[in-house]
Write a sequence for this structure.
């Protein structure tokens, strides 16, 4: 599940050391502050969730080189990532990046949030994580200027935790929310085994992210 979420985070995340088609990272105090302010917090998720180590998102996670967007002309002033776990089977990961201008963020959105990129992830998941059962796009209400949602359902062969026996076919549900407003973009991925997380729970968290992105621009 962790590998899946890290790969998905590449849709809107930046490389710590720019190279090839990656944006140029020139961090500023304001940019880094804005990126971390946009991230999901433990207080929003609740006391049952445990925060993991912070991470630096990376566009190198995009598995299809032929679809890698050329963002080498863009400049990012802030990046940040956070991850939370609820027991061994549920995870919430957020990755945010702040561009030098709102126009650059718009350009990035046009290049990265496309059906071709989603199909790229589908093929990668089928080859590395098991069989992709379905991939659908959904809409949701957000204060952010741009928003897109995707649900990926993957069937993974899992050996029994105790004793011997045939492998079990376990489904992983990952709901991916991508938002962009002003110079800031953020991806929030909710992953769970056997059953998806509550859509009401996801909508509440993502709604607050959208409000922060909108308020940050104001």
């Amino acid at each position: 599940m962790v590998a899946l979420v890290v790969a998905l985070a590449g849709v809107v995340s930046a490389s710590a050391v720019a190279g090839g088609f990656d944006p140029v990272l020139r961090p500023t105090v304001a940019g880094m502050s804005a990126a971390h302010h946009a991230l999901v917090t433990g207080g929003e998720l609740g006391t049952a969730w445990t925060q993991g180590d912070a991470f630096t998102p990376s566009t190198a996670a995009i598995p299809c080189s032929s679809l890698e967007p050329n963002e080498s002309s863009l400049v990012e002033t802030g990046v940040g990532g956070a991850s939370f776990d609820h027991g061994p089977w549920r995870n919430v990961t957020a990755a945010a990046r702040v561009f030098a201008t709102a126009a650059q963020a718009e350009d990035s959105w046009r290049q990265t949030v496309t059906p071709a990129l989603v199909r790229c992830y589908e093929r990668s998941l089928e080859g590395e994580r098991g069989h992709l059962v379905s991939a659908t796009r959904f809409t949701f209400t957000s204060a952010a200027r741009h928003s897109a949602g995707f649900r990926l359902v993957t069937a993974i062969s899992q050996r029994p935790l105790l004793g011997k026996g045939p492998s079990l076919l376990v489904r992983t549900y990952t709901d991916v929310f991508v938002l962009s407003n002003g110079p800031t973009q953020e991806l929030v991925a909710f992953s769970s085994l056997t059953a998806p997380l509550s859509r009401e729970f996801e909508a509440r968290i993502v709604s607050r992210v959208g409000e922060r992105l909108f308020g940050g621009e104001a």
